[in-house]
Design brief:
Elements: H1 3-21, H2 46-51, E1 57-65, E2 68-76, H3 87-99, H4 104-108, E3 121-122, E4 133-135, H5 144-156, E5 164-168, E6 175-179, H6 182-186, E7 195-198
Helix pairs in contact: 3-5
């Protein structure tokens, strides 16, 4: 065997070893290992953060970045007389904030929102728990990302600290307690917020 052929065989063997070391095997069965790693930083510069700050009520909203939910500091402009203790008005302001298109620095950092404008929120109907919130459209009609954003944002800004929010649709639609978990925040497109019907 001449020297050129020996080198070719050695190179082929080396390439085979490298590929085998990757641990990637062919498969005919579809697999789902979650979202591919992203190079999107999901972090804004100081100037970008300052552009969305203000003198209102400090809150955290959850936006989508690299297929995950990431909390972002915002400032709600609310009247200081009553609205700061009026949970329905605050919930509406949070929904409006989620429906607002991210700022240019946020977009450059990879942030987006799946919540659409026009959704309104009201307080409990007769017979509902006092902490219930009713949306103008059924939570089941929301996209997976939008539902996760709303649940985590509303739950994260409650005083209960249990990372859950009681929501329902209009009319007599059932109320459910939705929970914002670490799994929901890391995979909002595939892991739905755990929920249980509220009697």
């Amino acid at each position: 065997m001449n020297g050129r052929r020996i080198r070719a065989v050695a190179a082929a063997a080396g390439l085979t070893a490298v590929l085998a070391g990757c641990g990637i095997r062919s498969t005919e069965v579809p697999t789902d290992y979650g979202a591919a790693p992203s190079r999107v930083p999901c972090v804004m510069s100081g100037s970008g953060i300052a552009s969305r700050s203000g003198s209102g009520v400090p809150v955290e909203v959850y936006l989508v970045c690299a297929a995950q939910l990431v909390n972002v500091d915002r400032s709600l402009q609310l009247p200081t007389d009553k609205a700061t203790t009026d949970r329905v008005r605050i919930a509406q302001a949070l929904l409006d904030e989620l429906a607002t298109s991210p700022s240019e620095p946020e977009k450059q950092a990879g942030f987006a929102t799946d919540v659409r404008g026009g959704t309104t929120v009201s307080g409990p109907r007769k017979g509902d728990p006092e902490d219930a919130l009713r949306l103008s459209s059924s939570p089941e009609d929301l996209s997976a990302f939008a539902l996760a954003q709303i649940v985590c944002t509303l739950a994260g800004n409650t005083v209960s600290g249990d990372h859950a929010v009681v929501m329902g649709g209009p009319g007599s639609s059932p109320l459910r307690s939705y929970e914002c978990t670490a799994e929901v925040r890391s995979r909002p497109g595939t892991v739905a917020p755990p929920m249980k019907t509220v009697e």
